[in-house]
Request: fold
Amino acid sequence: MASNMVLYWGSGSVPCWRPMLVLEEKKLQGYGSKLISFSKKEHKTEEVLKLNPRGQVPTFKDGDVVVNESAAICDYLEYKFADQGTSLLPKDAAQRGMVLQRMHEAQNLNKGLIENVVHYIFRTKPEDVNQEHLNEKKKEAREELKRWEEYMQKQGSGTYVVGKEFSMADVFVFPLLAFAVRGKLNLDPFPGLKEYYQRLEKRPSVKATWPPHWSEEPAGKDFFTGV
Amino acid sequence: MASNMVLYWGSGSVPCWRPMLVLEEKKLQGYGSKLISFSKKEHKTEEVLKLNPRGQVPTFKDGDVVVNESAAICDYLEYKFADQGTSLLPKDAAQRGMVLQRMHEAQNLNKGLIENVVHYIFRTKPEDVNQEHLNEKKKEAREELKRWEEYMQKQGSGTYVVGKEFSMADVFVFPLLAFAVRGKLNLDPFPGLKEYYQRLEKRPSVKATWPPHWSEEPAGKDFFTGV
Reply:
């Protein structure tokens, strides 16, 4: 069935990494994997635009079904392959509610780290960076990370974002954390997240989907020093 | 079962309206409905903060299960009450993929209308408004609306966001459209959306959850003239 699937993705893109993790966890290896180059603007080619008029990745196709929003792809795959590979949304409604909560709450972590800090640095000429504004945004990112650290602390070591099983919440949280670590986030003030990160980076689905250009250049641009 | 549920919500809040629509559609009337006042900062009371440390609404509780992110509440309710009331996520995987896509794609409409235009106007002193910037953002909002107009046009009149049935995609799109119409968006250039809007505003779940202060003051602040 995976042979009917095509995923267009970019290396290091957090939204692309989510469905890639789901495809691995659901044992759907063998899907058509199309790595696009952002610098060559390959997400704006006719081939991608035909499937995704927004010209963004991820762009995903399963037979005739086209699903492009990362959360939609993840939910679609979990539903269609509910009993295959890792169960990413618990069948028990209460447990599922908790996983859904953290999965969607991760948008706050995305906002704190990516939208408010990374996008600001990317979109501002170095000479125009307002250090006071950036420091404020870094402080907000720290507060957000503290919140997730508390979640980890409350659960105790050896756990995932929600309880003792890897779930859709990890699919949404881990890539953000990995992006931040590569961007020089120091996890020492967040020991729960640090233990989680070091454990998860060894997980087979994570290793299989690790952004290839990160393997070549493990240290990224400095976004998060001082967070 | 609805008697175990409590929803804290604010009048006119798009994220609050989504779970309210789901509660109506799933025939869960009778839940504890707690209208909070934003101006009195009732979303920052101890009662809310105990359930939602972010101090935001919606805040939702079903027995011991606390779920606060709007998409998480909606998915939780649809899962727990799959066979009750309106089916909001189709059982057919291909159809479901399409609904999930539009449900999550609605974040672009949210960004175009609310984040880029409403938040900018709210957070900028009238004398500091950069008209050129605002016009650019209004133009982007128009482009986004055109995309959704095309979706409606392709399906023909009398349809919902995805096909012939009301779904989770409508739960995410309609409140944004209603917010925009109250903020003086002229729907005449978008006849498909206009027909859809006028039909949906008469839907029982929509009427039952219409923001109370909108009924008292049908005309809101002008955000969208010129879009």
Observations:
- Chain A touches chain B at residues 53-54, 62-72, 75-76, 79-80, 93-94, 96-98, 100-101, 103-105, 107-108, 147 (CB under 8 Å).
- Residues 2-80 of chain A form a domain with the Glutaredoxin fold (CATH 3.40.30.10).
- The radius of gyration of chain A is 18 Å.
- The mean pLDDT of chain A is 97.
